RNA sequence: GGUCCCUUCGUCUAGUGGUUAGGACGCCAGGUUUUCAUCCUGGAAACAGGAGUUCGAUUCUCCUAGGGACUGCCA
């Protein structure tokens, strides 16, 4: 076992495309556990299937985890004492372990072609059954158990393609394991088949590679998705066959789609308009683009917080957790067994909470590029920060700041007709003209409070409807019935701009 | 079909034999606000069904139903 029993966990994705948010959550739970136990978090790339390799996927995975703030201690980029960290680079070692199993009588060679297997499956299917390569059928297939030693030797020497299969015990035994999340889980070997461990192309399958590497890398806890639960007994048997200590397993519940049946997929995101991937991904083959949380404006800590609460809860009413708090509070016995439906609305809410926590200065800095995109030169940081402070509680994303604050940068181009119809009538238009003059002639300090006081007394003196005037004035300033405190806007806009906007409104809406 | 896993408000969930079944998101209503948003208050909303065990089941057991995963020389 590992030196001084320290915890070592790994996240072992396959570089077959962008990392799904479910994968990110798996990485997160591994990370939280490792950090809490002062252990190591390892990234291992499971690229034993050359046919499914997708260019850029590994990079994407690494960048995604970095964006999420899940830094690992060992991995393909920075290396470590247990490298290499790509299975393709560990290729040589697997054959010898597979052979070892054959020697020990726990595995055997099989020569059946893909066509043979296909045929067997179809045949079984036509009889309403499912073909299983295992104790009941292996003697009727082509392998080192059914063939004579001579035949086997001949085939092997002739270089005939062959795979190595695990030999399930002939006697029925119960394979049990204590899962950190599910407790006791048990399978009967009679229900299991002889899985391929080593492929004809010279590469191991996931099952062999994962067990060998987890052992060699001294992984103490295997934390992975529930989709691996059915192969748990095979892995347990593999550890036993090798005579190795097995790690502790934890199978995480799945993340389900917001509506309908099944697990969350890319299609759900397209359909309901939310990302399924941490980062934007452009498929190198088709050029198809998939949205990412980062590009959609989510903060990484909000994303992580939301993910952590999907399947785990602290048992208290706290919902907002920093990464450090998560590390501290996380526990497998508070991870749910049932799959969790993803709720895009709540994801939004999390982001809103995190946006509110950000300082105005930081948000102003993030807002700048959006202004430039609109052709506006961002004002000084302290001024932009004041604007952000006024509107940030109305948005969930930085990019939404524009819709709530555009009027600080440009005069409204149109006026909400419903508001105009309701407010801009009677004595109001004429009064607006007076207001323009009033503001123009104002000699005092240009401050919200003083201006408000003056305008209020003017309204009273003229016996006008307070709401109608205020809303009309707002209409002139922002173009509608929204936005922060009116006189704060007026103060920030400045005397000339305010006068010009009122004149423009009188011009367009009538005076 | 087979194997395994799962089942509390629409959703995420608390609950570990006796609770008015709690919180959050969303939704609705009222209040605050010159508007909108925030905020505050309130509201509707759940133990899948059936048998047991028990003085008493959301909680324990079994069955049924439903959901999910797996069932590749993919991971």
Automatic annotation (TrEMBL):
It catalyses: tRNA(Glu) + L-glutamate + ATP = L-glutamyl-tRNA(Glu) + AMP + diphosphate. ATP binds at residue 266. It holds the Pfam family tRNA-synt_1c. Residues 7-349 form the Glutamyl/glutaminyl-tRNA synthetase class Ib catalytic domain. It is found in: Cytoplasm. A motif ('KMSKS' region) lies at residues 263-267. GO terms for cellular component: cytosol. Gene3D superfamilies: 1.10.10.350, Glutamate-tRNA synthetase, class I, anticodon-binding domain 1, HUPs. GO terms for biological process: glutamyl-tRNA aminoacylation. Residues 121-144 are annotated as: Disordered. InterPro entries: aa-tRNA-synth_I_cd-bd, aa-tRNA-synth_I_codon-bd_sub2, aa-tRNA-synth_I_CS, aa_tRNA-synth_I_cd-bd_sf, Glu-tRNA-ligase_bac/mito, Glu-tRNA-synth_I_codon-bd_sub1, Glu/Gln-tRNA-synth, Glu/Gln-tRNA-synth_Ib_cat-dom. PROSITE patterns: AA_TRNA_LIGASE_I (PS00178). Residues 363-505 form the Aminoacyl-tRNA synthetase class I anticodon-binding domain. SUPFAM superfamilies: An anticodon-binding domain of class I aminoacyl-tRNA synthetases, Nucleotidylyl transferase. Residues 126-135 have a biased composition (Polar residues). Keywords: Aminoacyl-tRNA synthetase, ATP-binding, Cytoplasm, Ligase, Nucleotide-binding, Protein biosynthesis. Monomer. This is Glutamate--tRNA ligase. The gene is gltX.
């Amino acid at each position: 076992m590992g030196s001084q029993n320290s915890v070592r966990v790994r996240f072992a994705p396959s570089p077959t495309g962008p990392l799904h948010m479910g994968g990110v959550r798996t990485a997160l739970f591994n990370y939280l556990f490792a950090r809490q136990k002062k252990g190591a978090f390892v990234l291992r790339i499971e690229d034993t299937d050359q046919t499914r390799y997708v260019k850029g996927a590994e990079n994407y995975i690494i960048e995604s985890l970095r964006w999420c703030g899940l830094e690992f201690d060992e991995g393909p980029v920075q290396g470590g004492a247990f490298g290499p960290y790509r299975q393709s680079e560990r290729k040589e070692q697997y054959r010898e372990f597979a052979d070892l199993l054959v020697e020990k009588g726990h595995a055997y060679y099989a020569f059946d072609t893909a066509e043979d297997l296909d045929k067997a499956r179809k045949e079984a299917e036509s009889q309403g059954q499912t073909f299983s390569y295992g104790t009941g059928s292996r003697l009727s297939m082509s392998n080192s158990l059914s063939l004579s030693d001579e035949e086997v030797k001949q085939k092997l020497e002739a270089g005939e393609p062959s795979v190595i299969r695990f030999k399930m015990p002939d006697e029925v035994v119960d394979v049990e394991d204590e899962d950190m999340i599910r407790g006791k889980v048990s399978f009967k070997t009679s229900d299991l088949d002889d899985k391929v461990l080593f492929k004809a192309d010279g590469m191991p399958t996931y099952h062999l590679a994962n067990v060998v590497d987890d052992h060699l890398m001294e992984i103490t806890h295997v934390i992975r998705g529930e989709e691996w639960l059915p192969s748990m007994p095979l892995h347990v048997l593999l550890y036993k066959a090798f005579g190795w200590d097995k790690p502790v397993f934890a199978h995480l519940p799945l993340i389900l789609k917001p509506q309908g049946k099944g697990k969350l997929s890319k299609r759900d995101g397209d359909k309901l308009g939310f990302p399924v991937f941490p980062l934007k991904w452009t498929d190198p083959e088709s050029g198809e683009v998939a949205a990412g949380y980062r590009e959609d404006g989510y903060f990484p800590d909000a994303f992580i917080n939301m993910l952590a609460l999907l399947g785990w809860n602290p048992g208290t009413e706290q919902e907002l957790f920093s990464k450090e708090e998560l590390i501290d509070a996380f526990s497998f016995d508070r991870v749910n067994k049932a799959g969790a439906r993803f709720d895009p609305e709540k994801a939004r809410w999390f982001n809103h909470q995190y946006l509110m926590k950000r300082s105005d200065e930081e948000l102003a800095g993030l807002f700048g590029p959006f202004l430039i995109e609109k052709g506006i030169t961002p004002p000084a940081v302290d001024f932009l920060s004041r604007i952000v402070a006024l509107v940030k509680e109305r948005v969930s994303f930085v990019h939404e700041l524009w819709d709530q604050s555009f009027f600080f940068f440009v005069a409204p181009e149109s006026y909400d007709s419903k508001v105009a119809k309701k407010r801009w009538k009677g004595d109001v238009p004429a009064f607006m003209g007076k207001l323009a003059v009033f503001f123009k002639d104002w000699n005092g300090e240009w401050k919200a409070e003083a201006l408000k006081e003056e305008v209020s007394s003017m309204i009273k003196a003229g016996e006008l409807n307070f709401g109608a005037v205020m809303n009309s004035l707002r209409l002139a300033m922002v173009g509608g019935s929204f936005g922060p405190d009116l006189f704060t806007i007026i103060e920030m806009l400045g005397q000339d701009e305010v006068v010009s906007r009122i004149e423009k409104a009188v011009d367009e809406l009538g005076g």
